[in-house]
């Protein structure tokens, strides 16, 4: 997972999922869910710091392994 703000990476990590997925689709949804939790947390942090973000966050999902 990588979270970028203003084009710069602010969070990046690779972890094992805590739950066994029964399909690749389920695994993707689980990974995206964790990513969205991180994005929501960052937006709330920015709001608390007085820099509230307007508009939606764009989340991309890529299954390619480098």
Question: Can you characterise this structure?
Answer:
This protein is an alpha+beta fold. The chain has 1 helix and 2 strands. Strands 1-2 form a two-stranded antiparallel ribbon. The longest helix has 25 residues. The chain is elongated. It starts with a strand and ends in an 18-residue tail after the last helix. The mean pLDDT is 84.
SSE topology:
Layout (H helix, E strand, L loop, with lengths): L1 E4 L2 E5 L11 H25 L18
Antiparallel strand pairs: 1-2
Unreliable segments of 5+ consecutive residues = none
Helix/sheet category: alpha+beta
The number of distinct β-strands equals 2
Average residue pLDDT: 84
Helix content: 25-40%
- What string, H for helix and E for strand, traces the elements in order? EEH
- Name the beta content range: 5-15%
As a whole number of angstroms, the C-alpha radius of gyration is 14 Å
């Amino acid at each position: 997972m990588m979270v970028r703000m203003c084009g710069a990476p602010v969070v990046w990590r690779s972890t094992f999922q805590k739950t066994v997925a029964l399909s690749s689709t389920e695994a993707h949804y689980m990974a995206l869910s964790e990513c969205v939790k991180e994005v929501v947390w960052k937006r709330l942090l920015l709001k608390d710091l007085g820099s509230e973000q307007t508009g939606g966050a764009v989340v991309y999902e890529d299954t390619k392994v480098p």
